[in-house]
Specification:
The complex is a heterodimer of chains A (146) and B (359). Chain A has five helices and eleven strands; from the N terminus they run E-E-E-E-E-H-E-E-E-E-E-H-H-E-H-H. Chain A has 146 residues and is α+β, with helices and mostly antiparallel strands. A six-stranded antiparallel sheet of chain A has the order 3-4-5-11-10-7. Chain A has a three-stranded antiparallel sheet with strand order 6-8-9, with no helix packed on it. Classes of the chains: A alpha+beta (146), B alpha+beta (359).
């Protein structure tokens, strides 16, 4: 089940609560932003990325993502060294909107401590459903208050 | 008992002098820092700048401005920490910085929600001085289709948020033409009065000299009413003053910050095609793969409001054909431009994209 209340959230991915996702392939972890994030943020116009070979910690802000006028955070879902950056985003940041889990990937981290860190991320249908429902409910409650 | 007590928020209001860009922007950056690190209640900063021009965090300042003209006219230039485009500031333009916790009750959640809450406040403020404004998704406030304020926000300092806006009390069009590089400037050279068709100020709307302080008071009251709070006039505490100094020294007086190269490529192009409805002429500013600004002109039949609706649907969206078509289609109505349809308009825009040159 990938579709949760209208948001595409693939089962095999691990999610950070700040809406970055992690695809694990051995110790290589591809990172991007979720469908929920791109729908909330709208058209992405610039991605401010770290350099390759930089070290990042799990939960650290390692980049900024600008939609029209809002600047959102890219939070590293795992610790490690950044080994690859998606250069296609330089010419076309809308890939994050149109294909958030495919061509819109942002960077690859060579993870340094996956075994202990994966447990801190949201994973599996039940946990992801609960996460998205919580995010939607938060938005609805705030709307009702206003 | 506590339930009925109004929450106190802090107000930094500067009416006695205009601030330098470094000082004003450094105070604003300190607002979310204070909320997040010192546990301060939300802080509103109302002030004016000295004559200046400020670019968004990820803009190419050298492409956006004619820096030699700024220097010759004594206009300060700087870069803010929030996004968006170039703004002209000065003693007749109210600057607003607002720091608040993103989870604060009463603030609508999500990016769109935050903008909506704050737009409502500003619409309320304009209403108090006799101007009926509306929110133009996603970031502007307009009066009869003309922009009167732009909103920008950045997530900063943990969960606290900095929100920036400027509200035009009066505006010097001649200065803007002299110091900025925008496609509108090219049009102005041809004699189109496109600025007055696209923007307005409180003085132009009211036809009277509205003091900046009156606008500031209206904003203050609108905040109090919308959020059900009371402001306490305050000034930065010693710890906050040290942080302001730090932002001035490490950010707003630093060449590396002001001339940052972290930005998409800025380009501009002009495209013309003949259509059944007449000549279509497109002026396009591109920021990387996105449209920063587009001006649709020519000798076709349409209304200013329709043209602006189309232009606005494309601002800060992808410049790919399918996205242009989709965004135009989202606002398209029959005969918006007589004799022109979405594919034809898209072709004209792509022609301008093909002709792009670096600014």
């Amino acid at each position: 089940m990938a579709d949760i209340k209208g948001y595409n959230m693939p089962d095999e991915l691990y999610y950070h609560e700040e809406h970055s996702w992690a695809r694990v392939d051995g110790s290589r972890v591809t990172v991007g932003m979720t469908d929920f994030f791109q729908k909330e943020a709208g058209d992405i116009v610039f991605v401010d990325l770290p350099e390759e070979e930089e070290e990042v910690e799990q939960g650290e802000v390692c980049g900024k993502i600008q939609s029209r006028k809002w600047i959102g955070k890219l939070v590293a879902p795992v610790s490690g060294e950044i080994v690859e950056i998606n250069e296609d985003l330089e010419d076309d940041t809308s890939l994050i909107n149109t294909d958030p889990y495919g061509k819109g990937w942002i960077l690859v981290i060579e993870a340094s401590d996956l075994d202990s860190e994966l447990g801190n991320l949201i994973h599996g249908v039940d946990a992801v459903t609960e996460f998205i429902e919580r995010e939607i409910q938060k938005a609805e409650e705030e709307k009702a208050k206003a | 008992m506590l339930k009925n007590m109004r929450e106190n928020w802090r107000l930094f209001k500067e009416t006695t002098r205009s601030l330098s860009t470094a000082e004003g922007l450094a105070i604003d950056d300190t607002l979310p820092w204070s909320v997040s690190n010192l546990g301060s209640p939300p802080i509103l900063h109302l002030y004016t700048f000295v004559p200046s021009v400020i670019v968004g965090k990820y803009q190419d300042i050298e492409a956006a401005l004619k820096l030699d003209r700024c220097k010759a006219r004594g206009i300060e230039y700087n870069r803010r920490s929030t996004g968006g485009g170039t703004v002209i500031m000065g003693p007749d333009i109210v600057a607003l910085g607002f720091g608040i916790n993103v989870d604060h009750p009463g603030l609508k959640s999500g990016v769109g929600g935050v903008f909506e809450s704050l737009s409502r406040v500003l619409i309320g403020a304009l209403k108090k001085v006799g101007i009926k404004a509306a929110f133009r998704p996603k970031n502007d406030l307009e009066v009869h289709g003309k922009k009167i304020a732009g909103l920008s926000a950045a997530a900063e300092s943990g969960k606290a948020l900095l929100f920036h806006t400027s509200l035009l009390v009066d505006f010097d069009v001649e200065l803007m033409i002299d110091i900025m590089n925008t496609p509108l400037i090219k049009l102005q050279d041809k004699g189109y009065n496109c600025f007055s068709q696209r923007m307005t100020t409180t003085r132009w709307e009211l036809g009277r000299d509205l003091p900046v302080t009156e606008m500031m008071n209206a904003i203050q009251e609108a905040f109090e009413e919308y959020f059900g709070i009371r402001f306490v006039e305050d000034a930065p505490a010693p710890q906050e003053q040290r942080k302001i100094r730090e932002f001035i020294d490490t950010r707003y007086t630093q060449r590396d910050w002001i001339f940052s190269h972290k930005h998409p490529r800025a380009r501009m192009g002009i495209g013309q095609i003949k259509t059944k409805g007449g000549l279509l002429e497109i002026y396009l500013s591109l920021s990387g793969g996105s449209i920063e600004n587009v001006v649709i002109t020519g000798d076709f039949f349409s209304t200013t409001e329709n043209i602006q609706r189309l232009e606005n649907a494309l601002k800060w969206t992808s410049a790919r054909r399918e996205m242009i078509e989709k965004n135009l289609a989202s606002v398209w109505q029959d005969d918006m431009i007589y004799g022109v349809d979405v594919p034809t308009l898209t072709t004209a825009i792509l022609k301008a994209k093909e002709n792009q040159v670096r600014l």
